[in-house]
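Let's practice the habit of predicting before peeking. Look at the sequence and jot down your guess about where helices and strands might fall. Then scroll down.
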Amino acid sequence: MAAAAGVVLLVTGCAGGGGVKVEAATVAKEIDAAAIAAGFTKDSSIDAVGPKLKECKVDWVVDDPGRSADPKKSFADTFAGLVEAGWTEGKSDQKGDVDVRVVTKGDWEVRGAADLGKGIKAVVFAGTNTSSECVELLIADLGNGKKH
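Done guessing? Here is the structure:
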């Protein structure tokens, strides 16, 4: 389910620009800091980003989001933490129990999706570098279905 959410997050939009140079390691660090401060823990067993895409994509999957005292608040607090770290709020959408939010910085876009309804709960943050070089690599990766 988390891997599928990552693919959906990847292909649903491109941002870009802003003149700010941001590295993948910085994106990962800022998602990590914001999500942990909000009360989430990372599921380190899930790494859907292959070596060729390490500078183009960052995935952060929450380990058992239902374990958080208030996962909806933790999701909102993660985005508040990213905004505090200099990310710009983008669009958001909520349908039923599914909440999707977007923040951008430079060529990077972080999309978060939280499905916190009854049953299985899932929260994923996916950072995508929307530069032309990375978009080309990401599209090629989707086309061959392999982990690069």
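How did you do? The two ends are 20 Å apart (CA to CA).
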